[in-house]
Design goal:
Elements lengths: L4 E2 L20 H14 L4 E3 L9 E4 L12 H9 L2 E20 L9 E14 L5 E7 H14 L10 H15 L9 E2 L8
Parallel strand pairs: 1-7
Antiparallel strand pairs: 2-3, 3-4, 4-5, 5-6
Length: 196
């Protein structure tokens, strides 16, 4: 089932999400719906707060980047490895040089900004069967994971831009809050009142 994506301005997007217990009700159905919702919106990642659930869960599929001819085989393999479900994740380490890349977000449609992030991460997470993993990612795969991880920490990519750039996009952000934006996927612009 395709779920509406929560738009910029909803307090749930600024709230730190809670861990999921192993017996979380209908988790497999929720994950299936998240994949369907993300692909319907042509996204490469989706976090639970973006569908109105304040829980530590996100999915990532950076494989559309595989079309880039300049990627090495190793980079391609890392991107393929990153396509999965991340439950109760913790980024243990971020290292390497910070590099800029134009990021967007399904909750903030029509806005893209260069965001600087460390090139490598080490992350601990559970998969959908609650098996624990610790993995390292770099490059574009790390970036997608860092962006989605920020969502469950209550951080948006617009929080990482300069105050000047924020002023330049202020009206666009205000319009998203009011639902005055054209998108080809379902969105919800009103506040999600209580945490799930």
């Amino acid at each position: 089932m395709i779920l509406p994506i929560v738009g910029y301005g909803a307090p749930i997007l600024k709230r730190k999400a809670k861990d999921i217990p192993k017996d979380y009700e209908n988790l497999d159905k929720l994950i299936k719906n998240m994949w369907e919702t993300m692909y319907n919106a042509n996204g490469i990642g989706l976090a639970a707060p973006q569908i109105g659930k304040s829980i530590r869960l996100f999915i990532a599929d950076p494989t559309p980047f595989l079309d880039d001819d300049e990627l090495t085989e190793e980079e391609k393999n890392t991107i393929k490895r990153a396509k999965k479900v991340y439950i109760n994740p913790t980024i243990l380490e971020e290292e390497g040089e910070e590099w800029g890349f134009s990021e967007g977000c399904l909750s903030i449609p029509g806005i893209n900004e260069d965001i600087f992030r460390p090139e490598k991460i080490k992350i601990e997470y559970f998969d959908e069967d609650f098996n624990k993993h610790t993995e390292e990612f770099d490059g574009l795969a790390a970036r997608v994971i860092q962006h989605e991880y920020d969502h469950i920490e209550g951080i948006l990519f617009t929080d990482k831009i300069s105050s000047l750039k924020k002023r330049l996009i202020k009206n666009k952000l205000k319009n998203i809050t009011k639902g005055k934006v054209k998108v080809d996927y379902r969105m919800r612009f009103s506040d999600v009142k209580k945490p799930h």
